[in-house]
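Quick review question:
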């Protein structure tokens, strides 16, 4: 009887574990939701490419993008939060990409039964149009010295590749990082992600996040609209201990274009009281208390 109870308990625990493994954090889009969103974003990009006169500035493009977010019942913040999660769960993100590619291919196969379609549509129908991994080869020309407001005791925490060559084969994706701060970290430390960018008019976005031991998260994101040095700073809270530092550089490479990311670094510096007020420009997500 005792063995039977043990078997039943283990079976229940096993299925509870399976359910937990498939559960995503609150506020993160599911794989199917992300796939549907990717489809609409890609269709919007194709529409913009074919109506360049109507979408000759960032404002008009943003209106279209916001309309897509509204259709899916999300905000830019919801999208950013989902991207952060998927950047560290690439297997799930690849599932979403595969679903999106399949949906796009079926759509354009249906269209092409009646017409050949334009070149952009043909590109979207190909599975490699969205997926692909960056290579680590050429470097961009230097744009002067790296700008930095960090002073005093600094440490470069970056590990892994520091240079990326991004071509059409890696059309949409992420350069991700995820690390622990180390035993010498202190409350109030400041983190600066920096890299040298030659984007050749391609779209780039950067996100830097830190998780605290109490479950809260600080985050800052921004788009990149020019070549040269890109820096983004995140100020940690003096009332919280940093548990994890992570983020991504996202890219979307246009057809026939190449972009370069070089000299990646993630520098930690000690708290500067004069710049601590910067923390109010960041987003803070606190764990829901029971």
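Suggested answer, residue by residue:
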């Amino acid at each position: 009887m005792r063995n039977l109870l043990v078997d039943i308990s283990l079976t229940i625990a096993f299925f509870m574990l399976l359910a937990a493994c498939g559960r995503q954090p609150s506020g993160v889009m599911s794989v199917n939701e992300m796939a549907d969103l990717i489809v609409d974003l890609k269709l919007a990009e194709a529409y913009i490419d074919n109506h360049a006169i109507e979408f000759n500035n960032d404002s008009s493009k943003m209106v279209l993008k916001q309309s897509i977010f509204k259709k899916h019942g999300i905000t830019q913040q919801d999208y950013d939060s989902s991207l952060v999660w998927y950047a560290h769960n690439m297997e799930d993100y690849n599932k979403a990409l595969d679903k999106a590619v399949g949906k796009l291919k079926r759509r354009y196969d249906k269209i092409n039964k009646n017409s050949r379609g334009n070149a952009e549509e043909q590109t979207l129908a190909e599975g490699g149009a969205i997926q692909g991994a960056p290579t680590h080869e050429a470097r961009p020309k230097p744009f002067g010295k790296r700008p930095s407001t960090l002073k005093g005791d600094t440490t470069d925490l970056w590990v892994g590749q520091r240079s990326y060559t991004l071509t059409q084969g890696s059309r949409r994706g992420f350069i991700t990082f995820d690390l622990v701060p180390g035993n010498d970290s202190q409350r109030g430390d400041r983190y600066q992600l920096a890299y040298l960018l030659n984007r050749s008019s391609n779209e780039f976005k950067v996100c830097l996040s830190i998780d605290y031991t109490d479950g809260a998260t600080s985050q800052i994101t921004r788009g990149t609209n020019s070549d040269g040095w890109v820096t983004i700073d995140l100020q940690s809270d003096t009332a919280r201990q940093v548990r994890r530092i992570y983020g991504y550089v996202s890219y979307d490479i246009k057809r026939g274009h190449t972009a370069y990311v070089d000299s990646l670094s993630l520098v930690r510096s000690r708290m500067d009281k004069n710049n601590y007020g910067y923390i109010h420009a960041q987003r803070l997500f606190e764990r829901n208390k029971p």
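Why it works: The radius of gyration is 22 Å. The helical segments are 2-21, 31-50, 58-71, 76-87, 90-112, 119-125.
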